[in-house]
């Protein structure tokens, strides 16, 4: 089956996730800049989560563009990823409203970790369907950034029980690590053209 429907569905779900997150931002009652100060933790949580969703959307787009065809396993692996991403608005809201709270900080990391695990499963499922000697498998290589990200999330979850600020700093670090799109798959898509 071609990838078009999976791409379109995923794009729609990700657009809804972003919409839900932005709807959680409340307009301040005052008209001066000082009235924005209490909203800063909520806004910063939103910006970080928006960045994560944008990173997933960008890399997901390139991954599916490099995928020749999808099957049922790939579709379920994709749904697994979308499930974890769909929890982002909840944990973002909880973290923003209770900034510095142990459990909101830790649960935010759990959702990030599980989304990373789900993305890794999606990659592995696609590679398994295309073959270990496929151009995509070769482009993915050892996936050091993916592995480092998961280690970072695990460390941040543990740090949430010690210092929520260090935990948040790790979440920001991992996001910055991925700010530059995954060039491996982007290069493959450019070199091979659209997957049919």
Element-by-element helix/strand order? HHHHHHHHH
The protein's oligomeric status is single chain
**Count of structural domains:** 1
End-to-end distance, in Å? 10 Å
Structure summary, number of beta strands:
0
* Major beta sheet summary: none
Structural class: mainly alpha
As a percent range, the share of helical residues equals: over 70%
* Number of discrete helical segments: 9
Described by the principal axes of the CA atoms, the overall outline is globular
Strand content: under 5%
What's the Cα radius of gyration?
18 Å
The stretches of 5 or more residues where confidence is low (pLDDT under 50) are none
Q: What do the pLDDT scores average to?
A: 90
How would you describe this protein?
There is one protein chain. The chain is an all-alpha fold and 196 residues long. The chain has one domain. Helix content is 76%, strand content 0%. The chain is built from nine helices and no strands. Helix 1 packs antiparallel against helix 2 (40-65), helix 5 packs antiparallel against helix 7 and helix 7 packs antiparallel against helix 8. The longest helix is centred in the middle third of the chain and has 29 residues, at 102-130. The model has no long low-confidence stretch (mean pLDDT 90).
